């Protein structure tokens, strides 16, 4: 495992080992650690794994020290914004947070905040899992009427992937078009790439963070090892800096205490635990987080969506024919082996991917509940559920493709222009 194993892995391992190992050969102890660690889930910004392929989110919340989003918070958001809560909130897809209530308290008192989210541009097109944070962030921007900064970490992908800088920069612009197609308001949104924007006040904040985070901190929080290249050590301050309003002097001049809310998947939490620890040391407010579950691969939660396996995911460039073929052939079913058995005992909704995808993308709560009930009790067959999913995804992807076709290079330039946003809180 090595000395750089994440703290969330090592601590449970050490607790499970016999404490009376004095005199036991080191090789044996290492072997015991490896065996126990294999039974532990690992969630970092670069690795997500679990012994049975299913993430235990309750355990993850306890390990990370974040809080659950309960019905009271969902109701409060709907009340404050005068908008129905997004289905991602209603259905527990965005399920955890850090200091979200503090943001809501300030908003209720008339104070403002800004949103920050991002994307690591490593592929030509996005899959549906990539769209989740942007769909939700769009809802937050519209509901709270607040500004948004979107970081495209082309530098990170150069460091982590076998890509040239030129390709990373090109992919960033292509991914920006898909992000813009989600419907963000150009009068409230600033999109930037690290390779183009980092410098000045942003770089000053990076330095402030870097000076206060030790190598041991990174080992414990992010799982950095001595074998990792130094780019992995230098990058975390880059992702931390957008949490601080002074990193954007053209947007928030003289407003260094403006709060930041970050919608992201929960694997990004370690970056922002580090950020929240540093923030008060350099005179800033701690950013708040609202965190989502992972979006499963077509083959099930035990399989990771991969750019090298186009059949593991639905892409925003897929045709209706491709969507139909992928869902019918690859979407893991919780239905039974025969119609007779299925009619008798019904489907296992806990493992059924079409149901999981409908949970993300079917807007109508009543229809979703009906499908779940009928399918679970065996009155609806797998083929029927898949047909409904194919229709939902085909409509979603076609709508995205129409919007994407309208995004020009000039529009990308407009979103990326370093300029004030006078109507960003309007």
From TrEMBL:
GO BP field: post-embryonic development; reproductive structure development; translation
GO cellular component, one term: cytoplasm
Domain of life assignment: Eukaryota
Record's keyword terms, sorted: Aminoacyl-tRNA synthetase, ATP-binding, Cytoplasm, Ligase, Nucleotide-binding, Protein biosynthesis
Signal peptide limits: none
PROSITE patterns with a match to the protein in the record: AA_TRNA_LIGASE_I
Entry EC no(s): 6.1.1.2
InterPro entries found in the cross-reference section: aa-tRNA-synth_I_CS (IPR001412), aa-tRNA-synth_Ic (IPR002305), Rossmann-like_a/b/a_fold (IPR014729), Trp-tRNA-ligase (IPR002306)
Subcellular locations according to the entry: Cytoplasm
SUPFAM superfamilies (UniProt xref): Nucleotidylyl transferase
Broadest EC class assigned to this enzyme: ligase
Gene Ontology MF annotations: ATP binding; tryptophan-tRNA ligase activity
One Pfam family here: tRNA-synt_1b
Family indicated by similarity: Belongs to the class-I aminoacyl-tRNA synthetase family.
The protein, known as: Tryptophan--tRNA ligase, cytoplasmic
Native organism: Urochloa decumbens
């Amino acid at each position: 495992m090595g000395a750089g194993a994440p703290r969330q892995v090592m601590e449970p391992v050490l607790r499970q080992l016999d404490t009376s190992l004095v005199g036991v050969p080191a090789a044996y102890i290492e072997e015991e650690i490896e065996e126990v660690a294999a039974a532990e889930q690992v969630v970092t910004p670069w690795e997500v794994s679990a012994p049975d392929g299913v993430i235990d989110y309750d355990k993850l919340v306890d390990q990370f020290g974040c809080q659950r989003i309960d019905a009271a918070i969902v109701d409060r958001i709907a009340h404050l914004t005068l908008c129905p809560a997004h289905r991602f909130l209603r259905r527990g897809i965005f399920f955890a947070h850090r200091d979200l209530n503090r943001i809501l308290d300030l908003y209720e008192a008339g104070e403002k905040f800004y949103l920050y989210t991002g994307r690591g541009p490593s592929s030509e097109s996005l899959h549906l899992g990539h769209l989740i944070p942007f769909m939700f962030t769009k809802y937050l921007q519209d509901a709270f009427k607040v500004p948004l900064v979107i970081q495209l970490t082309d530098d990170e992908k150069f460091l982590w992937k076998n890509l040239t800088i030129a390709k990373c920069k090109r992919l960033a612009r292509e991914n920006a078009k898909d992000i813009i197609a989600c419907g963000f308001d150009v009068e409230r949104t600033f999109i930037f790439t690290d390779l183009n924007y980092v410098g000045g006040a942003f770089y000053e904040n990076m330095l402030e963070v870097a000076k206060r985070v030790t190598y041991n901190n990174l080992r414990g929080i992010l799982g950095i090892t001595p074998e990792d290249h130094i780019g992995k050590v230098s990058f975390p301050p880059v992702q931390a800096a957008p949490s601080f309003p002074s990193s954007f002097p053209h947007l928030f001049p003289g407003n260094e205490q403006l709060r930041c809310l970050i919608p992201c998947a929960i694997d990004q939490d370690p970056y922002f635990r580090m950020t929240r620890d540093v923030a008060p040391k350099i005179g800033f407010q701690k950013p708040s987080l609202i965190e989502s579950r992972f979006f499963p691969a077509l083959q099930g939660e035990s399989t990771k969506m991969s750019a090298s396996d186009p059949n593991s995911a639905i892409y925003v460039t897929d045709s209706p024919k491709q969507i139909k073929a992928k869902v019918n052939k690859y979407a893991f079913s919780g239905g039974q082996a025969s119609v007779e058995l299925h009619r008798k005992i019904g489907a296992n909704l806990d493992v059924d991917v079409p149901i999981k995808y409908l949970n993300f993308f079917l807007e109508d709560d009543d229809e979703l509940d009906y499908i779940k009930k009928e399918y679970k009790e065996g009155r609806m067959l797998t083929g029927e559920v898949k047909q409904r999913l194919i229709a939902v995804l085909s409509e979603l992807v076609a709508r995205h493709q129409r919007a994407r076709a309208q995004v020009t290079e000039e529009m990308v330039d407009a979103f990326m222009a370093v300029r004030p946003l006078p109507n960003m809180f309007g």
